[in-house]
Amino acid sequence: MTRARARLWLRWSWRDLRRRWVLVTALALVIALGTGAFAGLGGTTAWRIASQDASYASLQMHDLKVRLPDGGFAPQGALLKALGSLPSSGDVQAADERLVVPTQVDASRGSASVLVPGELVGQSPTARVDTVHVGAGRPLAPGDEGRPTAVLESKFAGVHHLPASGPLVLSGGQRLTYVGTGYSPEYFRITGHSGQVLGDSGYAVLYLPLRSAQQVSGHPGQVNDLVLRVRPGTDRDRLRRELAAAVAPIGGTVTTRDDDIVYRGLYADARNDQTTWNTFALLILLGAAFACFNLVTRMIEAQRRELGVGMALGVTPATLAIRPLLVGVQIAVAGVVAGVGVGWLMGLAMRREFEGLLPLPVWRTPFQTTRFLQAAALGFVIPVVATVLPLRRALRLQPVEAIRTSVYASSGSRGAGRLVRRVRLPGRSWWSMPLRNVVRAPRRTLLTALGIAAAVTCLVAVLGLLDTFTAVKEQSSAEVERTSAQRLTVSLDRFHPGSSEVVRGVAQAPGAGDVSGSVRLPATVTSRGQTVEVVVEVLDLGNHVWSPSLVQGSRATAAEGIILSRKAAHDLKVGVGDTVDVRHPVLSPTGLTLTTTPFRVSGLHPHPLRAYAYLDSRWAASMGLAGTVNTLAVVPAKDTSQSALVRNLFARPGVSAVEPAAGFAQMVESRLDEFTGILRVIEVATLLLALLIAFNAASLSADERARDNATMFAFGLPPRVVSGMGMAENAVIGAIGALVGLGGGWLALTYLVAGFDTVMPEVEIDPTVSTATWLLTFGLTVVVVSLAPLLSTRRLRRMDIPATLRVVE
Q1: Strand, coil or helix: what is 315?
Q2: Quick one: which of 40, 269, 423, 776 has the most CB atoms within 10 Å?
Q3: Is 481 helix (H, G, I), strand (E, B) or coil?
Q4: What would the pLDDT profile of 636-655 be if each residue is shown by its tens digit?
Q5: Residue 518 contacts residue 495 (beta carbons within 8 Å)
Q6: Which residues of 163-249 form beta strands (DSSP E)?
Q7: What is the reported pTM?
Q8: How many CA atoms lie less than 13 Å away from 673 in the CB half-sphere?
Q9: Minimal CA–CA distance to 32: which of 310, 461, 345, 343?
């Protein structure tokens, strides 16, 4: 091909683009949305994993961790001595003893009351394992040992707008000063003793020098935690076994970094997010493909007579294909270039959301070249394929068939047409025209509806995720607030007799109403090769303050065994009546030791958190805990608010933490608020995609029916009626697409929720879509799609009626 001929083809294709520049621009934007979503959303997972790897390495995350049971302590140096006695002790690169205990933190400023549960992490200021990243203020120094000085967890400080340093008050009236804000690897997300993920605003972690933590908490010379890093190439599993045997006599358990709920959850969440973002991106891309195929098909159909004339004159099909292929290629290039920009903007928006949701000391967000090249390839292939398929069909026609004049390129479905002709709607004759037009162009109707359905599928999946977690929150609230929405959980600093001064002091505190004591212990439940970590609460199942409800099992026999959550029973593959092995602490004169006891599953409770398990108080004696408590359930008196009672209990001796019983539900609500910002990015993209697809469909319809519209204008119909007919036709197509998309959205949501079991195995999550979401999505889709023809109203009003009605054979 000569250069002159190439310029001729390009100028000819540009003329085609200019003739439909509005539709071409809209289509390029659709392709840009699809490719941009694929590139921008998919690249975030690589960012997260690279950033997490660098962050954990920079803060020297532990490889192994020894933890004594709640209430169990060892003399300082005892855990290091046990480690040093191991045959493989030479494989240890660094190790630090710590003291980690719960507390209550008062960070109130002026009229703003901030009184929350938390924990003290006591470790050497020169620790070499699980070090603290300080983002504001100063780090702890060796000179701070023995002084009431701390570093406050930075996410908590940020949520409550606290300065980089200031005074704090702990439970029991202990006062200290924090000199900086920061965090360590175990607290990239905030977790409590129960292992549930808490909101940043509801839990305060304080890092203190070890001796300071011992003095503040009332445990001088004691530790309950050991973290260590091993040398490269070390057999970690062998070292773990040796260490577990060494600390078993004092009730210690050994875990790896892979067992850490935050570490495991962050990486599982990142991998699951890849699946989620890929699903959304491919759905948006699918909608773009349908829209592209729809427009290019109509452009080819509009050139059908020109192609027929060319074939009649002897022009080869390959030559005739150049012009429409050039149009498809130019649309693809425009869409890909715009898609890179859209992907970059979406990536920036997602990065901003993630940095706020998950502060890390190191964020690595390089340009994802491979992902953008994949997106560019998809964005290029889609319009080219959309051009080749209808072009191939058009070039196979006989010249006489291609030249034949036809108002509509598609004759529609004869059966459906006959059926629609029999339908007699009341009112004017043109009232039935929108429905007939839908049937007369089945290919365009189908492609448009499928494109809209892809966008609706995304929207339902996004809103369904919010509904799903809202249902988890409501399920939790319904269980824990069954007897009182104001109930508080008071954690004591150690085991106390039920008649002790500490317990009586809580019961007699101003504003305290009904009080019930219990014992909470960490335990491991095993059955059929499956293991679940739980917190067993030993309580009187007949008490009048609160006890778990049952969804399976009988209240009359519930005290005869252990009550598990439905999620734990599912994961353990057991039901009511089956037997499980429970490894739990036993209190003896020499301290806490671990033992294994078989229990019959006597019931299942409905709380979604897997970790909650219950035993009747009759079992306390077998654990050496008869008559003792370490947890109190307290209901405020009639005229006392929950916040007032929390403050009254704050300074009581022996009280380490006070928190609402509905803390888990409040955490879910807090996390929902944070996660909503990420989902809003996808919502905007899907709604914009639906609008662009509908606009393309309306513009194509207006082009196809230009002579019909001109005829109606000639007979005196006003433009508002013609526009109304277009809106009605789009409303029908929108309703079809919405119905298909609602079904697709449910399937997509089910697929996404199934992946949460690897990210949050501790929580029972079932896919849920509320009635309001069904109705809102359907109504919003129909309204947005039906309003699209209004964008073409100006062109209708400026129509040259005689020129439009003229037909040249």
Answers
A1: coil
A2: 40
A3: coil
A4: 998 898 888 988 888 788 88
A5: no
A6: 166-170, 175-183, 204-209, 222-223, 225-230
A7: 0.73
A8: 10
A9: 343
